[in-house]
Amino acid sequence: MTTYVLFCPSCNKDSNFFSLVFDPMNSVPSSNVYIGGEGVRFDSILANYMQNKRGYHDLARCISCSSIYQIITNNIARTSNPKLVTDVWVSPTSLHVFVPEAVRKDWAEALTGYKKGMNNSAAAMFRRALERTCNIKGFNSGKLWEKVETMLAPFPSDLQEYADLIRWIGNDAAHPTDDISTDVPREEVEDLKDFFEILMENIFIRPERRKKLKEKHNQRKSSH
Ligand SMILES: [Zn+2]
């Protein structure tokens, strides 16, 4: 049985981690596992391995708190110098499947920037993801403010305000002044992250959930 003795950031102490991937007796998780609070699919771990030959990757579970982390080691037997990988990217596959793939791609890039503390990058990407949302919804002519206004006209007015903040702060991020005092601060990106999620919930996720439930309901009624 492959185990690692490592410091666990979740329970804040040295702990044993059991391998989830390289022991035949432990099954490979097929759905999302949570690494550093983000859902990550096992196939994205493999993709990372393909891109990054610096080590051998594994997923392992802390026996003390059950948190799952990605592990990187120096040899194929996974015994040499294991380390926790804590610089995790956000994969588009970990985001809600009702959000169109092209939007998830930009959204994931924004979240990765956010997690890495790259505030200007994240803010600019949230603005880009907003514009892509408009384009995908068929609002693709005019300035971004016009697209957003038309797209969000049928929604409660606070959504328009969230979108405007993403637009304004994303613009600040994309158009620098000559000093860093106008750079986007951390706390503003934290708000953008939440506001973008609210937009996704209202524009894509809830309408699709309503539609799916109606379909199920109608099917059940018609089977009688
Ligand atoms: Zn732990």
Compile the SSE list and pairings.
Layout: E1 3-8, E2 13-19, E3 33-35, E4 38-40, H1 42-51, E5 56-62, E6 68-73, E7 83-85, H2 101-115, H3 119-136, H4 144-152, H5 157-174, H6 186-222
Antiparallel strand pairs: 1-2, 2-5, 3-4, 5-6, 6-7
Helix pairs in contact: 2-3, 3-4, 3-5, 3-6, 4-5, 5-6
Short structural description:
With 224 residues, this protein is α+β, with helices and mostly antiparallel strands. The protein has helices at 42-51, 101-115, 119-136, 144-152, 157-174, 186-222, and strands spanning 3-8, 13-19, 33-35, 38-40, 56-62, 68-73, 83-85. The protein has two domains: 3-85, no CATH class; 92-222, Four Helix Bundle (Hemerythrin (Met), subunit A), CATH 1.20.120.
Strand percentage lies at: 15-25%
Helix percentage range: 40-55%
Number of helices: 6
Structural class per helix/strand content? alpha+beta
Which cofactors or ions or other ligands sit in this model? zinc ion
Mean pLDDT, nearest integer? 84
Overall shape: flat
Terminal-residue CA separation? 54 Å
CATH topology of the largest domain: Four Helix Bundle (Hemerythrin (Met), subunit A)
Q: What is the top-level CATH class of the largest domain?
A: Mainly Alpha
Write up what this structure looks like.
The chain has 224 residues and is an alpha+beta fold. It has two domains: 3-85, no CATH class; 92-222, Up-down Bundle (Four Helix Bundle (Hemerythrin (Met), subunit A)), CATH 1.20.120. It is built from six helices and seven strands, in the order E-E-E-E-H-E-E-E-H-H-H-H-H. The chain has helices at 42-51, 101-115, 119-136, 144-152, 157-174, 186-222; strands at residues 3-8, 13-19, 33-35, 38-40, 56-62, 68-73, 83-85. Strands 1-2-5-6-7 form a five-stranded antiparallel β-sheet. Zinc ion binds next to loops.
